[in-house]
Amino acid sequence: MAFVGGEVAKEVLLPGNGRHVFDASFLFGKLNGHLSGSPLKWHPACRVGHSNSFFRIVSQRLTHNAIQQLLLKRFALAAGTYALALMLLWLAFFTGHYDESLARMAVGTGLVIISQAALFAVFYSGCNLRFSDPSLTEVQVLMGLGWQTWLIANLDEARGAFLVFYVLILLFGLFHLSRRALTRCALLVFFSFSAITLWEGYHLQLRDPALAGLQACVLLIVLIWLVLYARYVQASRQRMRQRRFALQAHQDTLRGMMRQLEDLVATDELTGLFNRRHFLRLASRELSAMDAGVMHGLALIDLDHFKRINDVHGHAAGDQVLQAFAGVATACLRDGDVLARYGGEEFVVLVPDCDAERLTACCERLRIAFTDVELIGLDVAHLSLSVGMTLLELGDDLDDALQRADQALYRAKRDGRNRCAAAWENVDA
Q: Which intervals hold domain GGDEF (predicted)?
């Protein structure tokens, strides 16, 4: 007679150290369809800490709301089960199989309705979340067994037809009650029915003792089978849960390995900067997302006399120079700027939301900072770089922009190096 949201609650509430914990990943999987249309968008530059904090807050809210919705739906089914049981009870009364007065029948029906209304108030107000078992499984099972025993006690020979409700109630708690709790409930069922039978036999009200004994034996066998089956099902579910957790752990490991592989593919090993292929992918994405009236800055950077440094001081010294530039450039640029090694001693910078003045100031700041670099253990007379700059607007082609920046870089090197040249400058001047 009592329907318990055991299975759904079991999927959401997992036993751990004697307490029940929320499995938010299960809920997000169930709610993914609702969240797919959400206006929330995540930028690749979002910090991990911020996103984790956001998901913790959203997870808590969605977890509570989803649990309450699931439990209220299950409670509605439980109330429907009670309604059907009351209909059968009144049918037994009008057919003469229920030995009670009309007034006591009405009072009993009213008490059943009040008990369900009280449970609904607990679920609707959220007070059930204060308990270790928010589904209140054992409470609902015991309440159902109590009403079922009251029904059985006043039936005549027809009580055998209503014994199935005992099994139905225990089945509803099969997936959520612990083994001990389910065993306690099964013992309560058997001793309650046996007590009713012995009471009637003692007062000489038992019309067919053999039938009553047969009913008690059948009930005992069914209860034993139910307890053993519950243990088997719960053990199987535990193994499946462990396998699911192990699979999730393997998936997390694989995702971490994939991220590492992506980093290796996207990153230049020597400088730690993005490589050319990854830069082109990021720059194309930025261009496609540009708004009208917004400009981006693009700069090609070449380290002056880098081949001479390699020839005179060796390739290890050249690697040290490249690493020094990567550190200086990273410190001079904003978080949203994209810096990459374009090839050899060439680097490329994409500066979003930038005009000509800001791009020039950025490149000059970088050029001056690099000339002030002193390399420990390396006697290099002078470090410098040349920069070719251009601006990107909506509809520009990335290859054309890179060609303009390359032409400006050629002019900067032709005019003496250690300078910045812009594609928008008048060449003739």
A: 294-425
